[in-house]
Amino acid sequence: MDSIEKEQKELVAFVACNGHASVSAGFAACKSCAEAVETGFRRGDCRSGCVGIGSCVSVCKQGALKLQNGHIVVDRDLCNGCGDCAAKGVCPQHVIKMIPRNATNFIPCSSTEEDEETVRNTCGYGCIACGECERACPVGAVSIVNNHAVIDYDKCVGCSACMIKCKKKIIIDSLHDLTKLKDKVAFVRCSGGSKAQGVFKSLGVADCHEAMKVDHKEHSLCTSGCCGLGSCTKVCRFGAISIVNGTAYVDPEKCVGCRDCIRECPKKIISIVPFKGVKQVPCASKADYYDKAQVCDSGCTACGDCVENCPNGAIYMKEMHAVIDADVCVNCKVCQYVCGRNVIREMNIPAEVELQRAALERIQMRMEEEE
């Protein structure tokens, strides 16, 4: 085996696009990807991603590429690293890259869009170029190029730091479980039950955004509480959020902290909190005690008992409800003991997660010391 063939064997094709935002209905009659690009994109299409025609499929002699649901899928076992699919003139979007076969971290996005909101509206898998991955990488293997993150595989050691810090949670890591190695998760600041959901359904309202047009006070509903109609559940890519007893609930073991549900919630009652064993208050009501008592039997009444009894000063009142500072809380459970309405919720973390997190921190510290 000559050196060129050996070098090819060590590479594999990778499609740096994980969405279908470029697969426009206007491309249906196109015979090649180049023709599709020349035809032009429509509003809402990603102008940097795979156009889904499959010119690369026809040039692959190994049959390693397939077009599935408008997206190119690479069979790594069949790919011999020849690079024909990534050659100039085959993929006009330049989204096919030849990467080391032993690579473990991947960023499937080639977006050049500058505006974060446009990226979010266009593709659920799009990189928003926030730079968190670049700052987190202990070996400088990740950088932002043309408004999307790129991994330098000559430097990457597969530590997963970029994956953990990615705000959109689009970075793929074949070695670590994204649902376990994370530092933040979403939390719904409401535990109001099925009252609001029942009212909205009786009115024929089926969407949280539509529910915002209803006069909540006229129907004796909390103006800050969950609508219970599940707009957040529809955007969660990880199946981590569901409607339980009429209120949205986040399963912290499934949630990865991507923030898609936070962006979707019209009442803005979903927040991002640290994934560690501290307490949280599921209430965002700004109403006074009397008004709150009229519409909800599970909300914080701002009585102040938790604030007065917290031995570390981790709890304070904000806009008529208690807030717990996760950086100060030591999970002592005193607040839960003194809360007369049993509002305060504990965020438990499996023991194996703590072990994985400690191991990752040791790996990162060792790499930083070796630099």
Short description:
The protein has helices spanning 3-9, 33-39, 55-59, 116-122, 132-136, 161-165, 195-202, 208-211, 231-235, 260-264, 289-295, 305-309, 334-338, 351-370; strands spanning 11-15, 65-68, 71-74, 96-100, 105-106, 142-145, 148-151, 172-173, 184-188, 241-244, 247-250, 270-274, 279-280, 315-318, 321-324, 345-346.
Give the terminus-to-terminus CA distance. Answer: 36 Å
Give the class-level CATH name of the largest domain: Alpha Beta
Helix content: 25-40%
CATH topology of the largest domain: Alpha-Beta Plaits
Overall tally of domains: 3
Radius of gyration: 25 Å
Topology as H/E string? Answer: HEHHEEEEHHEEHEEHHHEEHEEHHEEHEH
Low-confidence segments, ≥5 residues, pLDDT <50?
A: none
Q: Average pLDDT across residues?
A: 89
Strand order, main sheet: write it out. Answer: 1-4
Number of strands: 16
CATH architecture of the largest domain: 2-Layer Sandwich
Sheet having the most strands: 2 strands, antiparallel
The chain-level structural class is alpha+beta
Describe it:
- This protein is an alpha+beta fold and 371 residues long.
- The chain has three domains: 1-102, Alpha-Beta Plaits; 104-180, Alpha-Beta Plaits, CATH 3.30.70; 184-346, Alpha-Beta Plaits (2-Layer Sandwich), CATH 3.30.70.
- 26% of the residues lie in helices and 16% in strands.
- The protein is built from 14 helices and 16 strands.
- It has helices spanning 3-9, 33-39, 55-59, 116-122, 132-136, 161-165, 195-202, 208-211, 231-235, 260-264, 289-295, 305-309, 334-338, 351-370; strands at 11-15, 65-68, 71-74, 96-100, 105-106, 142-145, 148-151, 172-173, 184-188, 241-244, 247-250, 270-274, 279-280, 315-318, 321-324, 345-346.
- The strands form eight sheets. The chain has a two-stranded antiparallel sheet with strand order 1-4.
- The mean pLDDT is 89.
